[in-house]
Amino acid sequence: MIVTPGSATLHELRAVMEGEALALPMGWEAPVEASVNALAARIAEGEALYGVNTGFGKLASQRIAGADLAKLQRNLLRSHAAGTGPCLPAPVVRLILAMKALSLARGASAVRPQVIAQLLALLEGGILPAIPAKGSVGASGDLAPLAHMALVLIGEGEAIIGEEVVPGAEALRRAGLAPLELGPKEGLALLNGTQVSTALALAGLFTAEALWLTALVAGALSVDAARGSDTPFDPRIHALRGQPGQIRTAAALRALLEGSAIRESHRTGDARVQDPYCLRCQPQVMGACLDLMNHAAAVLTREANAVTDNPLVTAEGEVLSGGNFHAEPVAFAADNLALVLAEIGALAERRVALLTDPVLSGLPAFLVREGGLNSGFMIAQVTAAALASENKALATPRSVDSLPTSANQEDHVSMATGAALRLAEMADNTAAILAIELLAAAQGVGFHRPLASSTPLEGAIARVREVAAPWDEDRHMAPDIAAVKRLVERGAFTGFVEGG
User: A Pfam family in this protein (predicted)?
Assistant: First the structure.
């Protein structure tokens, strides 16, 4: 797949993350070489250039001798590779390599073409640098994790090949690659940037989108299980408000419920005038989530295509020091995605609580006959509540936090990497909540037999029943939750939503 630097789409980025090969278009080297030549001319003039012939951060006033410029870049990678914690997952590392190559290939970073080619070679060969997940504050870029990435290019650090962790030099040898000798600024360009936080946020976005679709299916199924109304999804209601996500969500819920015999059985003569909010207000809540996801997608697409190292070299040969490495846009996007994941799970948990309450649902208590002898879904709802509560704590905004670093030179930071890193844990919690709701809603619909739900919702029930039998009497609940959660994580329910 050929991707033009500066023009990558979310579809292309997701494909790379999932394993598709990445190539650059013909002629990409020309602007890259021009920036290298421009920087070389400025160095030859004896000008002090940050990170090129000076120290870094608070040490920027220290001039470095010409004979030590290569050593300066090596030392930078070694000293900044100070991360900790478990390594980032392979799909995220693939995306980091791809975005770093695309950013450098825009020709504003004064990095030689062979550096970019080495990044692409690692990606193509499945040689993924071992990058500890923690250690970045999201300004000046993702320094520590990107330093771990860059070490492999010079034959140091560690890489993961399949399931094997090997020294960086061995990884290059297996790929037939030689360690790079870094030129002026190249080490700084490699580790200065927002690619790690952006990759984590993009992974969170892709997961949130799939969970959002799954939640629509689970929510619609809960409406039928609780003999709820589809009137709240009437397009006239949502047109009067005009929120685009709300309008789209209502349309999706209408399509999911269309043709349900359960709905038709109580269209007239229903004593319940209005459903609880967790059923009735799905378009308003899930629509707001959709609008936030769309905003985050736009921000992250721009960031994935951006040049975010420092200093930058213009087409006219000027060297400009700035702050594109500050990941505040990514931090805000990640915080919004955290809100989305928390709200998807919170609304789903409330529907599970409704279904298990006989007063609200009209169904047997805890969705099981012979209550008392059987506890049914009693503790499954407790599990959902625990996970929803955990997500609320995890959703606390990280972008409002800042802790000065580098002897107060870097006195305001974004915390974008931590903001994006916690999305995976939140998504895991939300997937489990949705698995519990799918089990509960499928169980609830079973009490309305022989009436059938709609075609797509019956398809969703069949998918649940492939891995979990109806609940006739108490049995070990955890395996059912785990089995349906695996389906949720594979996106097994997203296809039931029109356009999903």
Answer: Lyase_aromatic
